[in-house]
Amino acid sequence: MTEVQQPTPPTEDWSQPPAEYFSDVFWTSLSPWSVSITFGLRLTHPFEKDIPKIRMRMPLQQAKALAVMLLRAIRRYETDANVTIELPDQLLKGLGIPLEDWKRFTK
Prior knowledge:
Helix content is 34%, strand content 21%. The protein is an alpha+beta fold. A hairpin with a 3-residue loop joins β1 and β2. The mean pLDDT is 86.
């Protein structure tokens, strides 16, 4: 079996760790060539707007590969920790994710 190695970005200075951010809300935007994912913070008061913190852009192919890799990592975590990560129906509805799609995704 061939080992797949993750590429290291060229000319990066790895002497310092990369910046880390926390996000509890995100937005996505698609074009025919790329996807943009904006991560932000949800505010506690309903009249306040969420705060965008960082935006990542990538080709659609890379975003699709990332989605698969995230799903694999989360499934592995659920198996190792013997837990199931669920989303409340109200949250799925708010995100526009039909329950049937969620069930198909989490199989």
